[in-house]
Design brief:
This protein is of the alpha+beta class and 204 residues long. It contains three helices and eight strands. The protein is 18% helix and 50% strand. The chain is elongated, with a radius of gyration of 25 Å.
Length: 204
């Protein structure tokens, strides 16, 4: 009888240890997380947090970059294309709600082009985007911090467009903070067309 009790106790203890190990290291089910992580990320559940991480390579373009050079009959639109490696990390709280995500991007190929002339301006880009959600699980509530650099440099020439430093963007899309040289912000947010003149000249 005593041996039976000891055996039962050991069996219950073993089941408890297996269950604990399953909870702490078994990949978390994507359906329990809000919002669900992208398919390329693998999730691991800890005691109070679930972390999802993965990498992928993406390509795009040519797509309209939103930059118009010149005016009248000589005006042309600038197009963008590129390939980049992306590493994504997501952090979920104990209730399965997303609290933060970090995205690292490293461009292996990128260029602006003018399809009318066939001219291109290559660029390099390395950046990190960190999104902190004010309301866990609600992607409309995040504040985004962007750090890194984008350098547009024609072959055998000095850079014609530059974007580097740190910027903080509020949930409503407004810029809370900026440090460094941000030609894109000056053009798209402030309407300063002078910052793209050298780029336009290189593509004309």
């Amino acid at each position: 009888m005593k041996l039976l009790r000891v055996t039962c106790c050991l069996f219950v203890l073993l089941l408890s240890l297996v269950a604990f190990a399953f909870v702490t290291v078994h990949p978390a089910g994507a359906q329990t997380l809000n919002p669900p992580p992208p398919s390329f990320e693998i999730c691991r559940a800890g005691e109070n947090v679930t972390i999802c991480q993965g990498s992928r390579t993406l390509s795009y373009g040519p797509v309209d970059a939103g930059i118009v050079c010149g005016s009248g009959a000589s005006a042309f639109e600038v197009f963008d294309s590129g390939t980049y490696d992306q590493l994504g990390i997501r952090y979920y709280d104990q209730d399965g709600n997303l609290t933060r995500r970090v995205i690292h991007e490293d461009y292996t190929f990128a260029q602006f082009s003018n399809p009318l002339t066939g001219k291109v301006v290559p660029y390099t880009q390395h950046d990190t985007l960190t999104d902190v959600l004010v309301v866990p699980g609600d992607l409309s509530s995040f504040t985004e911090t962007i750090t890194g650099e984008v350098i547009f440099k024609p072959a055998h020439s000095a850079p014609v467009l530059f974007n580097a430093g740190r910027g903080v963007i509020a949930p409503d899309g407004s810029i809370e903070f900026r440090a460094g040289q941000h030609d894109f912000i000056d053009y798209f947010e402030n309407g300063d067309t002078s910052v793209v003149q050298k780029l336009c000249a290189a593509l004309a």
